[in-house]
Design brief:
about 400 residues, alpha/beta, GMP Synthetase, Chain A, domain 3, Rossmann fold, nine-stranded mixed β-sheet, three-stranded mixed β-sheet, binds adenosine-5'-diphosphate
Amino acid sequence: MSEITEQQVMESLKAVIEPGSETDIVSRKMVSGLVIKDGNVGFVIEVDPRDGAKMAPLREHAEKIVHALPGVVSVTAVLTAHSAAAHNTASGGQNAPPAPPGAPPGAPQNAPPGAAQPGPGAQQAGAPDAKPMVPGIDAIVAVASGKGGVGKSTVTVNLALGLATLGLKVGILDADIYGPSQPRMLGIGGRPNSPDGKTLTPLENYGIKCMSMGFLVPEDSPMIWRGPMVSSALQQMLRDVSWGELDMLMVDMPPGTGDAQLTMSQQVPLAGAVIVSTPQDIALLDARKGLNMFRKVDVPVLGIIENMSFFVCPNCGHESHIFSHGGARLEAEKLGIEFLGEVPLDIEIRETSDSGRPIVVSRPDSPHAKTFVAIAERIRDKVKAQGATRRQAPKIVMQ
Ligand code: ADP
């Protein structure tokens, strides 16, 4: 069967009427970021933020209509809150989403080539505060890495469990939309429920609440998330989820320090960020890039964790330093960031996290679990101290 076309999708969406204006969402230029790949369709519906909650049924309706088209395998529509001013005055071009870095060449492009993400300092036009706090969540901490495969998700889940061991109420937002692995690492699956039709209930295991793109998007559907879809999906995972009261929400960021990550860091009210790196990547200055990225958006970097730092022979206990060990500590010193600790390359760390029983819960007495808990403790203390500093900081410093 031939691939469904962009025109067919847009044509079908003309049947979706925006409540209030009584005009269809295509004529209202509310649809953008259309991506079609192997029958999987994704698009953005831009709405006025004041109507956000009211628009949930509109999104569902749009998904249903597109799903009914022949050859459509899955549909993901995400709502993006646009300021009223931008929405009302938008010409076609203004509503077009920016092209993400590395957008697949075959993907339909509504955006002009080379369109850029908003700059680091850019705030959403008309938005009173681009980073409103999330009610009920005390602190949000990002876990980031310069590239994939360094163990960022493994570290995130074990730190979250470490924080829970210390008595904190913890959640994980798996924002690694390119390869969400928290459902697997926490051993949870299925789809989150939405009892009220507006907010999603996070899934939970080992006392950790988790929301992940992996719950919402079928594993076999391609993850072609264009810039604005990433942002709005993140906003929905952050704000349309009933997290309840949390002391700390850990955000498992997508790997890398490009525009998508920068936009994310800009949109989430982060208390701080932790950078995970392997010893050999330190040499590639990934940590430095991460640091600069968070500095741009005024997010304090709480420290660096060196993962797969050294190898302990399971037979004789000998420590092998496969990669140049200690690079992260040195680099951290040079950069003036705290070195939070080192985690060895260990088969048990891999097996436990990959099978949904991370080492902090499955072998809490092991030295590796203790390492994670010690790092978690340090993160908790730093975030707490920072909050205190912020609260105590005098508003007027001139004398
Ligand atoms: P990322 O989130 O950075 O892409 P993951 O956390 O998914 O990386 O880890 C990649 C792989 O490496 C996984 O199979 C994971 O279990 C393994 N891994 C991560 N940290 C360690 C470690 N310290 N020792 C052994 N294996 C590890």
